[in-house]
């Protein structure tokens, strides 16, 4: 019996292939997905990992065996799959393990219109069915199985994104893109085709073994090559995509990283210019600058827990025009409330290209505070150490505590959030303050409690 508790996560399926799951299990997931969603048709895509085509094909067989017609869109980014789910109004499944190492693979599932499938929205039921069928045997095929066909949506996806941002009148820009051998190498050439952009591609060869570096741009080690290329060539901007190209990380003309919170604030200001008074979602680890900029531009900031299912739920509930996370996930009402790093990147190019300042000058207005970045501590007793931190600050004058997601402690000139990892024995600490010295002081004080 496979141990699905190890691979069915809060928002997706993810594990090592073939040790933790394989094509036979993928076929059961396809059947269960159709059973739980009640879909009569589904769309399926996959990334460039060696195991992805086989797993996606097995999922398609399982879905068709339950009577659903399958549209395979083949190689795609995760946001391209979301585009297909939205434009075709079909539930979808994307085979990817995002930035994880090559031996991993997974499934990101959504309902029609790119609505998320997570533990509380169908994933728990899918897991229960797969566990039952793995033990008892797969259900008998329906009398009339579904069909399996293919469709290419890359051109339509690119056209939709470009219809949402004015790029035709920007000044010429030199743009370095590091695709990390992931799906950005597949999507960027089509999206950028014909724009007034000199594209300098890095690691565009699709290779799920990631021969150059991990496709995780939030790890500083993985953007070193991009930073060097931007500096060497005098480029205007550098963009780095993760493995499934749904996240985008930005470096300025000096090769310096631009915090995702600053990108969130910049895009929020642009979106609010189109829809004054609209709501913008931000998770509780984004910078103070995000709600400040939203209010300054006449918008309504709404704070949420970390995680795409919470962001998307609040987007739907509030009718928000945009949402952003500290992890470089960016969500758009015009993209079915789904996340697309590519659209955020196009906003950056448009903002940069419609004025004469360098990117560092442009984003300075949105990057107002000092921050620690995420600091991870491996601890045996997550709950106990978090409780010790809470006790230390509970009665301190001038601070407030909230537990929307982990523990957030806020003072006049700093705040920190301490959250337990869902998948590892880690406590994750994020700190922001008005200056770097205060960040260091708060960091040392909290880590002394966490690592005691």
Would you kindly provide a brief summary of this structure?
This is Phosphomannomutase. With 452 residues, the chain is of the alpha/beta class.
Would you write up a description of this structure?
- Residues 374-448 form the Alpha-D-phosphohexomutase C-terminal domain.
- One of its GO terms (molecular function) is metal ion binding.
- The model has no long low-confidence stretch (mean pLDDT 96).
- The chain folds into 3 domains: 4-152, Alpha-D-Glucose-1,6-Bisphosphate, subunit A, domain 3 (Alpha-D-Glucose-1,6-Bisphosphate, Chain A, domain 3, 3-Layer(aba) Sandwich), CATH 3.40.120; 154-368, 3-Layer(aba) Sandwich (Alpha-D-Glucose-1,6-Bisphosphate, Chain A, domain 3), CATH 3.40.120.10; 370-450, Alpha-D-phosphohexomutase, C-terminal domain (TATA-Binding Protein, 2-Layer Sandwich), CATH 3.30.310.50.
- It has helices spanning 23-37, 52-65, 78-88, 123-136, 154-163, 184-192, 224-233, 260-274, 289-296, 308-318, 341-353, 359-364, 382-394, 436-450; strands spanning 13-16, 41-46, 69-75, 92-95, 104-111, 115-116, 148-150, 173-178, 197-202, 237-241, 248-251, 257-258, 279-283, 300-304, 322-324, 330-332, 370-371, 375-378, 400-402, 407-410, 414-420, 426-433.
- Helix 8 (260-274) crosses helix 11.
- The chain is an alpha/beta fold.
- The radius of gyration is 22 Å and the shape is globular.
- It is built from 14 helices and 22 strands.
- The strands form 4 sheets. Strands 1, 2, 3, 4, 5, 6 and 7 form a 7-stranded mixed sheet that branches. Strands 17, 18, 19, 20, 21 and 22 form a 6-stranded antiparallel sheet that branches. A 5-stranded mixed sheet has the order 9-8-10-11-12, with helices on both faces.
- A hairpin with a 5-residue loop joins strand 15 and strand 16 (330-332).
């Amino acid at each position: 019996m496979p141990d699905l508790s190890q691979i069915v996560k809060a928002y997706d399926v993810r594990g090592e292939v073939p040790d933790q799951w394989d094509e036979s299990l993928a076929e059961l997931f396809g059947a269960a997905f159709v059973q739980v969603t009640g879909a009569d048709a589904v769309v399926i895509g996959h990334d460039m990992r060696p195991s992805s085509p086989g797993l996606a094909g097995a999922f398609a067989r399982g879905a068709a065996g339950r009577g659903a017609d399958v549209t395979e869109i083949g190689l795609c980014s995760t946001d391209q799959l979301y585009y297909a789910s939205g434009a075709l109004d079909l539930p979808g499944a994307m085979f990817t393990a995002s930035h994880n190492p090559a031996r991993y693979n997974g499934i990101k599932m959504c309902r029609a219109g790119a609505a998320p499938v997570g533990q509380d929205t169908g994933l728990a039921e899918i897991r229960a069915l797969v566990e039952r069928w793995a033990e008892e045997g797969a259900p008998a095929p329906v009398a009339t199985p579904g069909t399996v066909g293919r469709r290419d949506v890359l051109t339509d996806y690119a056209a939709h994104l470009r219809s949402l941002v004015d790029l035709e009148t920007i000044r010429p820009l030199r743009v370095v893109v590091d695709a990390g051998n992931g799906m950005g190498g597949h999507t960027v050439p089509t999206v950028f085709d014909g724009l007034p952009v000199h594209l300098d591609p890095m690691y565009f060869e699709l290779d799920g073994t990631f021969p150059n570096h991990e496709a995780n741009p939030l790890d500083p080690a993985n953007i070193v090559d991009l930073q060097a290329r931007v500096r060497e060539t005098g480029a205007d901007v550098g963009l780095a995509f993760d493995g499934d190209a749904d996240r985008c990380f930005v470096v300025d003309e000096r090769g310096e990283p631009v915090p995702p919170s600053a990108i969130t604030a910049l895009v929020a200001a642009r979106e609010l210019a189109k829809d004054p008074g609209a709501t913008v979602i931000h998770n509780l680890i984004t910078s103070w600058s995000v709600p400040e900029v939203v209010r300054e531009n006449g918008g309504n900031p709404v704070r949420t827990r970390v995680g795409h299912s919470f962001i998307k739920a609040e987007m739907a509930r509030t009718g928000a025009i945009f949402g952003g996370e500290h992890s470089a996930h960016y969500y758009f009402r015009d993209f079915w409330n789904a996340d697309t790093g590519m659209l955020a990147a196009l906003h950056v190019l448009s903002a940069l290209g419609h004025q004469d300042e360098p990117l560092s000058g442009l984003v300075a207005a949105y990057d107002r505070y000092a921050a620690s970045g995420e600091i991870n501590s491996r601890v045996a007793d997550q709950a106990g150490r978090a409780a010790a931190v809470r006790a230390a600050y509970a009665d301190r004058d001038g601070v407030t505590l909230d537990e929307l997601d982990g523990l957030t402690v806020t003072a006049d000139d700093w705040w920190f959030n301490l959250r337990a990892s869902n998948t590892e024995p880690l406590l994750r600490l994020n700190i922001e303050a008005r200056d770097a010295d205060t960040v260091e002081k708060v960091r040392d004080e909290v880590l002394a409690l966490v690592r005691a």
